[in-house]
Amino acid sequence: MSLQMHNDDEGGEMSDINVTPLVDVMLVLLVVFIVTAPLLTQVVRVKLPKTEETEPAPDKHVTILSVTAQGEAQLDDKPVALEALEAELKALQQHDPELNVQLQADKAAVFESVAKIMASAQCSGVGKLSFVTVQQ
Questions:
Q1: Whole-angstrom distance, CA of residue 81 vs CA of residue 103
Q2: Residue (of 103, 31, 98, 92) closest to 67 by Cα position
Q3: Nearest to 80 by CA among 113, 125, 126
Q4: Distance between CA 73 and CA 16 in Å, rounded?
Q5: Interval 81-101: pLDDT, tens
Q6: SS3 annotation, the chain
Q7: Domains in the chain, start-ordered, CATH in brackets?
Q8: pTM higher than the cut 0.70
Q9: What does the pLDDT read at residue 96?
Q10: Strand order in the sheet with 128-131
Q11: 74: buried, middle or exposed (CB in 10 Å: 19+, 13-18, 0-12)?
């Protein structure tokens, strides 16, 4: 942008901003975006083969942590007090460093109890925590 000053005989100075270069740059950018936008939305259509649903391979490093509707914790189907849960998970973590904890929460469970159990799992050092859901 350039700034032009005119000195007239009337004694007043007139300053005008030349916006032509700004308009030129904006038009060039607009043309670039118009040309490149269709290239960004191309999708390759692939027909994938259909297979039967299979069960995942059993994992030896999986521990199931359940939350009942009453908000009680169960570790591998054994009831565990919330105060002892962190110690139990630490012991399992020391026994198996590749421990993967799968969290199954009853849909009637209060979120507060699920959050407390998740916090205990985090404090115990569990690195892999998965949520288990059921397909509809």
A1: 16
A2: 103
A3: 113
A4: 75
A5: 888 889 998 998 888 888 888
A6: CEEEEEECCCCCEEEEEECHHHHHHHHHHHHHHHHHHHHHCCCCCCCCCCCCCCCCCCCCCEEEEEECCCCCEEECCEEECHHHHHHHHHHHHHHCCCCEEEEEECCCCCHHHHHHHHHHHHHCCCCEEEECCCCC
A7: 2-40 (no CATH), 62-131 (3.30.420.270)
A8: no
A9: 84
A10: 78-80, 73-75, 62-67, 100-105, 128-131
A11: middle
Pairing of strands 73-75, 78-80: antiparallel
Contacts of 34 (CB under 8 A, 6+ apart): none
Which token pair is 70?
């009453």
Structure token pair of residue 67: 């939350």
User: Please, what is the end-to-end C-alpha distance for the chain in angstroms?
Assistant: 62
Tokens matching residue 3: 């700034």
